[in-house]
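ok trying this again, last paste got cut off
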Amino acid sequence: MSEEEIRELIMMISDLRAKDQEKFEVHIKLMNNVVDYIREFASSMKSKWGDIQEELDRLKNTITQSLESLLASINPDGIRETTKSLDNIMNSMQKSMQRMNLDSIMQQIRYMTGGVSTQLLAELDAKEQGLIAPPGTTPAGSQPGQPGVPSGAEGEAYGHVPEEYKKKQEEKKKGHDKLLKPSDLFG
């Protein structure tokens, strides 16, 4: 190596050391700034932590008071009484529905069996004993079409089935064969 090359090498090393020194100083300055910011953050957190604790305590007290007032306004006995009343209402509604279903079923059974009822059976027994007039005649004080008085096709369930009911039944039977359009369902 020549003297000139050694000199360039020494100059390059000294430049590298100077740059390293600058980088080191910048790094130390940055680290000092970071430490200062962390200290400021910690001190502000300490001061704010007291405020946060106070607000949390206030919130806790407010929630406790609200719950106590809510529990005081809710009357458990009233809720129990209301529940019992609702149970009674539901039971009575259920019984009413069962009675309605039973009445409907009984009417359908009478309609399907041709209207044989206890009243008609009693009339048949009376005919056998000779107490009722023959079928072509009308007993005194009664008219054809009244319950208990058979006259032609009117001697059905309880003595008489209204024509409107017969028409509705026929329409129901015919209605099952008809296909519904979506507009029929949704108006």
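PB: full thing came through this time. The mean pLDDT is 75.
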